[in-house]
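Hey L., structure's done. Input below.
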Amino acid sequence: MAEPMSSSPISGNASFSSEWSALLECASLAHDLQKLASLLRSADGDRLLVLAEEHGVIGQLVGCLRKLHEDSVPPGIRRALADRQRAQMFFSLRLTAELFGLLELFSSQGIGALVVKGPVLALQAYGDSAMRSYGDLDMLVRQGDIRRATELMSAAGYAPTVSLTTIDAGKIPGQYLFSKRDSKIIVELHNDHTLRYFPRRLPLEEFFARQIRVRVDGHEVSALSVEDELVLICIHGAKHFWERLAWIADVAALVSRQRGINWEQVADSAKAVGAERMLHTGLRLASDLLKARLPDRVQAVVQADVAAAQLSKQCSKWLPAAGGTPPGLFDRALFRVRMRGNLISGSAYVLRLALLPTEEDWNSDPDRKRHGFLDSVRRPFRLVRKYGRGGKT
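Output:
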């Protein structure tokens, strides 16, 4: 994948206000080209590119600029955007080819896998893989198959961050991450044990039972149902405080393009994992910021969730900086409490996240049996160091 345009984080909202307005118009499902042309005249091209890449919406920006008269956009900006999108397309093709090989490998050994996000979401939401930027492959694999999957991927040239001895020790990471040697390809395997930001353990077998087949570059792959995918990407956005416009654009594009969504199943899927407010917040952001149109009854439910409206408003304040001005520890905890629901369930959710160790808490002895009491004790102190003053690593 192409190198980032800038390694410097966006430090504040005000300094990018013109560029942000232009980018928001590009990502909107009902963008006004005349308004966009006017916004671009007051925007700095280089800053616009940086912001678009930070927010993961290069594809949307390219798509809009193609509809404008050539004089509206400096040639250098058009070339830079075309180069970025071309690089992303080539990298996406490499990822997709790798995905097919892994799915065939897993299938040959009787390992079930569901593709989430990545190329499947690009097609379901946009109908065009070039419209969505993604840098890794994500799959759901049952916990009982993780050891065999790790052995297979290691034999295929992937380096696991979680060793077989760590798996045998019963320790559960945030994800089972694999990197391809001498390349930038990353694969993450997830399941109901690792996806700890789901308020309740996800019903993995139900996800597998509702799976669908999606045709990707001439191959059919197993994927989450659209309804389960929608809930998953809303939880993912909530996990990251909705700090990238791409995550909101995915929600808006998915609900707009997929006309046959079973909204009762969406509500049931969200309720099963305690993510109703996360879903409502994602839909509210998609509707308010990007003009996504929801069915009247769904819109009424979303509008009636006052807490979701407040969370959406808070996210909209953080959003332009693309994570450059992250919330501090207290704001993060309060956001998660409110996102979960009431005070009791929200506090329990935050407490679990604060005490449940991940690989970052294992320190020098990842192969020690289970997490251990000391890992749980150390975790809150590490989080304070990481986020206590609003910093983010």
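The two ends are 22 Å apart (CA to CA). Strands lie at 113-116, 137-141, 158-160, 176-180, 186-190, 212-216, 219-223.

-- N.
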